[in-house]
């Protein structure tokens, strides 16, 4: 369910990332190559991007399939950005929320997307929802699991949590309340990217020139794409990628060994752990 992508790097027309690649997000809306659940992502789409000098992103979202939206094709051709988050949606449950249910969700400097589904929705998250201030519940953009997961993340961000910590804590809380949920979360503030691999595929491409892409699946056949192990938190900037194992709340505790992947470090393979130990999820 759903495919998403985040980018940090030199400014480019966002169509170069979403439409032009042979297996880009545009094509993934009807022919994903690595999607484990669902086959067509035609229940909405969205893209959020940052303009130079403005920390608050712009968004364009629609309820229908991306391939049928002519204004999107024009925007993708002419709008240039050095940071974006885009998604195509396969709805878990049909709703009347239309484009409000499509990622990216936004608040302040942040853009957010959820690839997955919460088991037992909505009853399974009733307790967690009750811990949010009423005003934040009333401000939900849509009545779906992704919107509530975003509210949980946003509450932590507004209370001062770092982006990666907010995602990791939310995933562990939701996984404990709703075992079996798929919780691939993606978050950017225009300067960094945080993401989780929890139940579906996640890949990253780290290249020279301060270019980082994090996506549900590769948009081309570049051999530099690397898959993120399941049960992992990814934290990336334009120059570094850090992978940290996440512990399933139902599994016993094990030591965790972060993996740092600096771009361009002398004598370092960009995509191999700097430690020799094999981390366990």
UniProtKB/TrEMBL annotation:
Residues 272-281 have a biased composition (Basic and acidic residues). Its EC number is 3.5.1.118. The keyword Hydrolase applies. GO terms for molecular function: hydrolase activity, acting on carbon-nitrogen (but not peptide) bonds, in linear amides. The keyword Hydrolase applies. Keywords: Glutamine amidotransferase, Hydrolase. It catalyses: gamma-L-glutamyl-hercynylcysteine S-oxide + H2O = S-(hercyn-2-yl)-L-cysteine S-oxide + L-glutamate. Residues 239-281 are annotated as: Disordered. Gene3D superfamilies: Glutamine Phosphoribosylpyrophosphate, subunit 1, domain 1 (3.60.20.10). Pathway: Amino-acid biosynthesis; ergothioneine biosynthesis. CDD domains: YafJ. InterPro entries: EgtC, EgtC-like, EgtC_Actinobacteria, Gamma-glu_amide_hydrolase, Ntn_hydrolases_N. NCBIfam families: ergothioneine biosynthesis protein EgtC (TIGR03442). This is Gamma-glutamyl-hercynylcysteine sulfoxide hydrolase. It comes from Streptomyces jeddahensis. The gene is egtC.
């Amino acid at each position: 369910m759903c495919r998403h992508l985040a980018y940090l790097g030199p400014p480019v027309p966002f169509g170069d990332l979403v439409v032009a690649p042979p297996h880009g997000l545009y094509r993934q809306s009807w022919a994903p190559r690595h999607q484990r659940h669902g086959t067509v992502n035609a229940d909405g789409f969205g893209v959020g991007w940052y303009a130079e000098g403005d920390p608050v992103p712009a968004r364009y979202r629609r309820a229908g399939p991306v391939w049928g939206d002519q204004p999107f094709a024009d925007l993708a051709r002419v709008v240039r950005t050095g940071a974006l988050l885009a998604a195509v949606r396969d709805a878990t449950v049909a709703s009347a929320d239309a484009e409000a249910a499509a990622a990216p969700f936004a608040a302040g400097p942040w853009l957010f997307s959820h690839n997955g589904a919460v088991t037992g929705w909505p009853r399974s998250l009733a307790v967690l929802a009750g811990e949010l201030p009423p005003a934040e519940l009333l401000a939900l953009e849509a009545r779906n699991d992704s919107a509530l997961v975003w509210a949980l993340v946003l509450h932590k961000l507004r209370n001062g949590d770092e982006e990666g910590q907010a995602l990791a804590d939310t995933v562990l809380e939701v996984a404990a309340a709703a075992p079996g949920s798929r919780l691939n979360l993606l978050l950017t503030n225009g300067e960094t990217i945080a993401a989780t691999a929890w139940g579906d595929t996640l890949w990253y491409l780290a290249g020279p020139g301060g270019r980082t892409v994090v996506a549900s699946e590769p948009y081309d056949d570049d051999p530099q794409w690397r898959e993120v192990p399941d049960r992992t938190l990814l934290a990336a900037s334009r120059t570094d990628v850090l992978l940290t194992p996440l512990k399933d709340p139902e599994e016993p505790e094990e030591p965790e060994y972060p993996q740092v992947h600096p771009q361009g470090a002398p004598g370092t393979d960009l995509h191999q752990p700097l430690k020799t130990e094999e981390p366990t999820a």
